[in-house]
Amino acid sequence: MASEPTTVTITGGGGQIGYALMFRIAAGDLLGPGRPVRLRLLEIPQGMRAAEGAALELQDCAFPLLREVDVTDDPLTAFNGARIAMLVGARPRTAGMERGDLLAANAGIFGPQGRAIGAVADEDVRVVVVGNPANTNALIAAASAAPDIPTDRFTALTRLDHNRAVGQLAEVLGVPAGEIADVIIWGNHSATQFPDVDHAILPDATPVREALAERLGGEAAAAAWLDDTFIPRVAKRGAEIIEVRGSSSVASAANAAIDHVRDEQLGTHNGWTSAAVVSRGEYGVPEGLVCSLPVVSRGDGKGYRVIEGLHLDDRARGRLAASVDELVAERDAVRALGVL
Fold first, then answer.
1. Which of 164, 172, 163, 234 is nearest to 209 (CA)?
2. CA–CA gap between residue 337 and residue 325 (Å, rounded)
3. Neighbouring-strand partners of residue 338
4. What is the pLDDT of residues 240-254, one digit of tens each?
5. Buried b / exposed e across 21-42, counting CB within 10 Å, b at 16+?
6. Model confidence, pTM
7. Residue 131 neighbours by CB under 8 Å, 6+ apart
8. Mind spelling out the 3-state secondary structure of 258-311?
9. Which domains, from first to last, does the chain contain?
10. Residue numbers annotated as active site
């Protein structure tokens, strides 16, 4: 077992997703059974008591891998030496709030956090933004941390959308979720995202679209299910959960964040996955946008790399373009605020 603990910083440490994250991280689900961790929980002053209570519970669990827990409302303390930063806390959209107001409020959160990461985090830090609007919040944080931290160290979470897509396919096909590989989430973590199964396969290399056609009664039926049921249900699954549960996704969001970091750190082992990464122009996405693309990791410390050269038909390109247009509009709105 490594003797030096890895510092993992969670923002919004007193919130529900932070609470769901910290116990699994302390148990070794994030980095494996051989890497001890040091948890730093960042909260706003009003959330400190909740975070301090969670820290007491962590102590009571006596996790062998957990070396220490620090609770703070100071970003410079929270990110000091951080190797992994999970930016969960964000300003949610409330009734009557315009998009520009939401972006401005989150710029006031993710700008200072990005600057703190640039100032005191480990030089090899990896950052995942969970708090919405995740793609643009990641863009803000990355711009604020530059030039001290390369922008490609910043990612945003679309693994939840990816997992939701896989779960829907598994249910319809009657197979375990682990048997479905190479699904893709393109674009923004929003209702414009495009869950794409055109490259997805089963263990015997059967294309998922072919399996869907056999299961649903033909190619036309499969195409109709994908466009009319699957894509909108994946994109709006969060709203569905709020309607049924009475509150937003918690455990599934925390699970997806752990999946995202674990695969980036330890390597992907079942084809590719989806993550919102800083574009270098792949698939015509404007350079510098934080956009969900198909990615893999070798687990070599270099993070995710984009799978290039996949064929997109006109339907797929149109859906990707619509989501990219939304990302461009968000970027331009943030620029108008003087943040970028």
1. 172
2. 19
3. none
4. 999 999 988 999 999
5. bbbebbebbbbeeebbbbbbbb
6. 0.96
7. 11, 12, 87, 88, 89, 90, 91, 106, 109, 110, 137
8. HHHHHHHHHCCCCCCEEEEEECCCHHHCCCCCEEEEEEECCCCCCCCEECCCCC
9. 6-156 (3.40.50.720), 159-335 (3.90.110.10)
10. 189
